[in-house]
């Protein structure tokens, strides 16, 4: 079904199509099982239990890329980074730097909107243990490639959360319209790479940031100030020029 991705003419169509994708049998089973079993604290919820489309305006200048939806976060609420601790940290920082209308993101109808920014992932379904297989990552690649191509007229900065997302996103950028150097640039918090466009347009500024997982935020490896600094850099590259 990811073959359809290249035929999507706008992001609304892409979002609708991706949410029906069943190309990865293991992930389809997992996302639907989690949606049936539920976590006790969310037993009154009807889980989304499907691929999670990107969130944010179609003319975004900044894209934020994680790895994959969380089982009881976005797989429950249907919106990226919504309803879990990682999202609490991310949206608070986005609000602090003026890219989100409110600091919290609890459910898809909570009134939150993003400014200049779209949040997405290279794997659109929640994987067991947060670990997609290389095959699943490759299966999902056309969806993100098309999403970035549709954002291409305005997109100037890409913030990648975590090394796994970085590795998964680099080949997608080559599929879209940016030139990725060889050897591939390494992930690090604060890493910055300027990728020239292959279509003669503006380059893309790729920024690395530690993932907003509890593992990083509870231990202080990633602080709100560190995250806000990367987001401010993305703003400076994407919006002030
Ligand atoms: S991970 Fe991507 S390709 Fe696989 S089923 Fe989900 S949306 Fe489809």
Automatic annotation (TrEMBL):
Keyword hit for Plastid: no
GO biological process: base-excision repair
Segments forming domain Uracil-DNA glycosylase-like: 53-231
The keyword Acyltransferase appears for this protein: no
Family matches, as SMART domains: UDG, UreE_C
Keywords: 4Fe-4S, DNA damage, DNA repair, Hydrolase, Iron, Iron-sulfur, Metal-binding
InterPro entries, per database record: UDG_Type-4/5, UdgB-like, Uracil-DNA_glycosylase-like, Uracil-DNA_glycosylase-like_sf
Molecular function terms, GO-annotated: 4 iron, 4 sulfur cluster binding; DNA-deoxyinosine glycosylase activity; metal ion binding; uracil DNA N-glycosylase activity
Pfam family, one: UDG
Residue ranges crossing the lipid bilayer per the database entry: none
Family, per entry: Belongs to the uracil-DNA glycosylase (UDG) superfamily. Type 5 (UDGb) family.
Stated name of the protein: Type-5 uracil-DNA glycosylase
Record organism: Herbihabitans rhizosphaerae
